[in-house]
Amino acid sequence: MGRKIVLTSGKGGVGKTTITANLGIALAMLSKKIVLVDADIGLNNLDVAMGVENKIVYDIGDAAENRCRLKQALIQDECFSSLYTLPSAKSIEPNKISSKVFSQITEELSQDFDYVLIDCPAGIEDGFHRAVSGASEALVVTTPHISAVRDADKVISLLSSYSIKKVSLIVNRLKGKLVKDGSMMDAKDISQLLRTPLAGAIPDDDNININSQINKTKNMKDAAQLSYILLAENLEGLHNRVYDCSYGYRGIINKIRNIFRG
Ligand SMILES: Nc1ncnc2c1ncn2[C@@H]1O[C@H](COP(=O)(O)OP(=O)(O)O)[C@@H](O)[C@H]1O
Ligand SMILES: [Mg+2]
What we know:
Elements: E1 3-8, H1 16-29, E2 34-38, H2 46-49, H3 60-64, E3 75-76, E4 83-86, H4 99-112, E5 115-119, H5 126-133, E6 137-142, H6 146-159, E7 166-174, H7 176-180, H8 187-193, E8 198-203, H9 223-235, H10 252-261
Parallel strand pairs: 1-5, 1-6, 2-4, 2-5, 6-7, 7-8
Antiparallel strand pairs: 3-4
Helix pairs in contact: 1-9, 4-5
Residues 16-17, 40, 45, 119 line the site of magnesium ion.
């Protein structure tokens, strides 16, 4: 049985879709079998982020209403053969897919995949309820900005009323220079504040733009890519490290001290 993990935040625009896509790639690099589920019914962001929007024949609405078999709606990634996307339905009313049906879909997927990553819509209404009902673990995404941290706090308390057995945190859009000079909260501070274990820290990445949220090179080497690899390895239980966004901004003396501290 694979793991069913929802990426949620309360606040929109904090990077759930971008992280779902990149985490999928990083897990595929670890030879895992992954399906990314777009739970933002009515909108389609994940298929665009994955660059598969022109390949859609069936979507989650067709699978939910038995117009196709679930497997027929999955789109295999061009670069990573173990990575699939289940696109959202654009043409049906979101409430046509009940939480029960959505849960059945994620449950069925978990029979075949190591990871079912569910990209949750913004807000804490029906779409949130549907997406969270289909998961057994949650990754709460926030940025270091106070409004996002507050919403993450609300979402974390809401999650306690669902059967979610593990909740962890991802802090996105960290700016190393600001963290270093103390004008931006560090991921570890936010994790303490929210009393939620940290699964990942992702740097603010100037290279991200609307058409290129992910870099599908098999050789991940820039800071953002490395941070996703660490996140994926963390989920796999290989270690408990997150990317240190302020590393490049520390003086040489501090770096040497850190090396000696191990
Ligand atoms: N680490 C990052 N650095 C820079 N821009 C980012 C980062 N993560 C996300 N973004 C940008 O922020 C915007 C919102 O991201 P998105 O993943 O769509 O958020 P959500 O799914 O939470 O609404 C997008 O334009 C995306 O490119
Ligand atoms: Mg999104």
